[in-house]
Amino acid sequence: MAEPLSFTVKPIYWETSQKDVKAIRNKVFVEEQGVPPALEWDGLDEGSFHVLAFSPEGAPIGTGRLLPDGRIGRIAVLPEWRRKGVGRALLDLLLVIANKMGNDEVRLHAQTRVVAFYRKRGFVRQGKEFMEAGIPHVTMKRKTADQTSWPTAFVFRPLARM
Questions:
Q1: Which residue among 21, 96, 97, 122 is the one 20 to 30 A from 48 at the CA level?
Q2: Distance CA 116, CA 147 (A)
Q3: Residue 159's pLDDT is what?
Q4: What is the DSSP string of 81-128?
């Protein structure tokens, strides 16, 4: 059995990494899923917390965001990196950030085809199915209190001693 591919996930600043985030979201949401660009680029990125996943070579491979109100969204992983734990690591880091920012609970709009992914991470479905950007979704939520340790894919590099 092949060894899993390694990757890292870290929080990023929108101002310095928006080119990478936009490239991934354009590929996944706009090109692959047909989301209209006007809906994808909703003006909420500048005030959100973002995370980015990187391949071992340093190429951006996935992203996600947390809105100030505790809503997680825009989790996108490039096709060749799916089913390798990248989405889970992105979500785990977003849950940690949400908790550390004082959110006891988070919510998201899950595409119905990936509800099982979120259910495995402790999310519970709320309400009826609805359409968003022409794609069926459901609202899901979960507490953050039990997700307060850093994910293993998060890279921590201590500051050099002065």
A1: 122
A2: 19
A3: 43
A4: GTTTTHHHHHHHHHHHHHHHTT-SEEEEEEEGGGHHHHHHTT-EEEEE
* Count of residues making up the chain: 162
Buried b (16+ CB within 10 A) or exposed e, 61-83: bbbbbbbeebbbbbbbbbeebee
Q: Is the pLDDT of residue 88 over 80?
A: yes
Q: Beta strand 8-12 with 124-132: parallel, antiparallel or unpaired?
A: unpaired
- pTM, to two decimals: 0.86
Alpha-carbon distance of 126 to 138, in angstroms, equals: 7
* pLDDT confidence bin for 5, thresholds 50/70/90: low
Q: Are 100 and 154 in contact (CB under 8 A)?
A: no
List of residues 6+ apart from 149 with CB closer than 8 A: 96
pLDDT at 151 over 90: no
